[in-house]
Design brief:
By secondary structure, this protein is an alpha+beta fold. It is built from ten helices and ten strands. Helices cover 43% and strands 20% of the residues.
Length: 318
């Protein structure tokens, strides 16, 4: 039920806006806001010509208030008129101005009208503008003419939220002419807008950061000498001492180094390095192999003599 009430309220506001826009046609209407207050509905009309909407002695406002009460059963509608600051940056006002110019001067001068609008909008500070005129312009065959200037986003979320779109129609003898206007105001923040700062613009580190003093103390104090900063009361501000390396973070000696130091303290010769041990192993192996080769014939002779003695003791021939 709540959703239905919200939808009905929005539909009612949309119908009120359409009715006011149709009643105030060709009066420089920009947009309309409907607000609910405890006293009734407050309707704010933004326009480029407030005097035309108010009328002489407020006749137009009174008539519009009476019509809203009768058509939409509004108890106490309060209509306020607000003037648009820059009409050249409002897409709806620009589209309506093009339509009025085409109806006044005809379709033969549509190019001059479009280029005049481009010049005025860009001079007002817009980032970009695009005007599309479609219909039987300037001949009896329908065409679409596109005029653009500056920079305009066509895709992405920025093309929806950062670009103002408006539509208008002009009734000519040859038929209805459609006008579409898209304007990117100067307040739009582009996602691809990157600013490159010069090295001079970069902030230099404050002198107090080196000494560890706050900027307020540096302003109130005075520098006596290099590294000597005093505040307003004359008390010295000590600079932070350099952090001493903790024992856990200090580089510890390796086990081989500890062993070498221990042997040196006991008066023993230092142990050989693994490289020296590997170098000594090669000649030792060669020496052992040579001794074994020399010992083989002597062992063979001893075995022969032992066999001969065994045979002689058994009574055999040697």
């Amino acid at each position: 039920m709540i959703e239905r009430k919200i939808v009905e309220q929005r539909m009612k506001e949309l119908k009120i806006q359409e009715y006011i826009a149709g009643d105030l046609k060709n009066s420089g209407l920009s947009h309309i806001k409907v607000q609910r207050t405890p006293l009734g509905e407050k309707i704010v009309v933004y326009t480029a010509r407030p005097g035309m909407i108010v009328g002489r002695k407020g006749q137009n406002i009174k008539k519009l208030t009476t019509d809203l009460k009768r058509e939409y059963q509004l108890e106490n509608p309060q209509i306020e008129i607000a003037e648009v600051e820059n009409i050249n940056l409002d897409a709806r006002i620009v589209a309506e101005r093009i339509a009025m110019s085409l109806e006044r001067f005809g379709s033969q001068r549509f190019k001059g009208v479009a280029h005049k609008v481009l010049t005025d909008v860009m001079a007002a500070g817009a980032l970009g503008i695009e005007v599309t005129i479609s219909g039987k312009v300037p001949s009896m065959r329908a065409k679409t003419w596109r005029f653009f200037s500056g920079y305009l986003k066509k895709c992405g979320d920025i093309a929806i939220s950062g670009v103002h779109h408006a539509y208008a129609t002009a009734l000519l003898k040859s038929g209805v002419i459609g006008i579409q206007v898209s304007i990117m105001p100067p307040t739009t923040k582009r996602p691809d807008d990157v600013k490159i700062r010069a090295p001079e613009e970069l902030q230099q580190p404050a002198s107090g950061s080196v000494l560890g003093a706050s900027p307020s103390k540096l302003v109130a104090g005075e520098v006596r000498a290099a590294g000597d900063v005093r505040d307003a009361s004359g008390e010295a501000l000590q600079a932070p001492q350099a952090e001493q390396a903790s024992p856990s973070k200090a580089k510890r000696p390796s086990r081989s180094r500890k062993k070498a130091d221990k042997q040196a303290s006991e008066g023993k010769p230092a142990s050989e390095t693994p490289g020296e041990k590997a170098a000594e192993k090669q000649p030792r192996k060669k020496k052992e192999t040579k001794d074994m080769k020399e010992a083989v014939p002597a062992a063979a002779i001893d075995n022969t003599a032992a066999i001969a003695d065994t045979a002689a003791s058994a009574g055999g021939q040697p």
